[in-house]
Design goal:
Two copies of one chain form a homodimer.
Chain A: E1 2-10, H1 15-25, E2 29-37, E3 43-51, H2 54-66, E4 70-75, E5 81-92, H3 98-108, E6 111-115, E7 119-126, H4 128-138, E8 143-148, E9 152-155
Antiparallel strand pairs in A: 1-3, 1-4, 2-3, 5-7, 5-8, 5-9, 6-7
Chain lengths: 159, 159
Amino acid sequence: MKRTLSALCKNEPGVLAKMALECEKYDANILSLAAGETENPKVSRIVLCVDGNDEAIDEVERYLDSLDVVIQIDDLSRKDFVDRELVMIKVGMDREQTGQLMQIFEVFRANVVGMGQKTITVELSGDQERVDGLIKMLIPYGIKSMCRSGMIALKRGDE
Amino acid sequence: MKRTLSALCKNEPGVLAKMALECEKYDANILSLAAGETENPKVSRIVLCVDGNDEAIDEVERYLDSLDVVIQIDDLSRKDFVDRELVMIKVGMDREQTGQLMQIFEVFRANVVGMGQKTITVELSGDQERVDGLIKMLIPYGIKSMCRSGMIALKRGDE
């Protein structure tokens, strides 16, 4: 099963390696990971989407929670979160298809960030459904390269 | 010095852990990391922003390049790339400030993704300068929580 964990960690060397090794130990496959700064320069947030059996992921979560460097860990599937992902896609384009592609970009509110002779590059941020939707629509045109950020998330409401 | 490396890797367990351990070995501090899917389900792209002395990072780059699981590695500071980052920010808000905040969001083209009694949550995707700019503007209002995806990047042009 796919699950997404969000960990607030102290900015110390070796945190990422520990997390990755632990996931490997339990055969939990890391599908995506986003590690970045937070409002506090001493703290970073690591959001990881893992695939594996439920008990293994529970084990990973418990282990991470037990680490001194981990301040807080949340299972994003269990709580109320706003989640977003960023994707950049370079898609093949010939002149006849430009109009069709532009319509797709407009529907998904994707922004053009670059253009070549034979390709056009767009970015989109949205929930996973929207990102997956755009990718599906662009596959027939030929996706030349793609880069996804992995999911990031914040709790809903004031908390 | 800050440098950003982008690695195309085979989807095999342990890649992330190897990378993270290697960076630690050379005292190259990982500032952010984004690992996600690409157009090829067997391949993922890992973009990492590291801080450390130049020779250490060169060493890390050479080591990563020597790994079987690493297909290609690029130094984003050396080539022509479009880079983007996604950020979500929950910022404090009282009624009198709503108008000012909305103006800032409009200037930066940040999207409101949630609202509570005392806070408002926005997302923004852009280059690091724009993301840092928005954060700077919002600090006086009180940033309650923040999550950054780390940089993602694709080569400019058709390549």
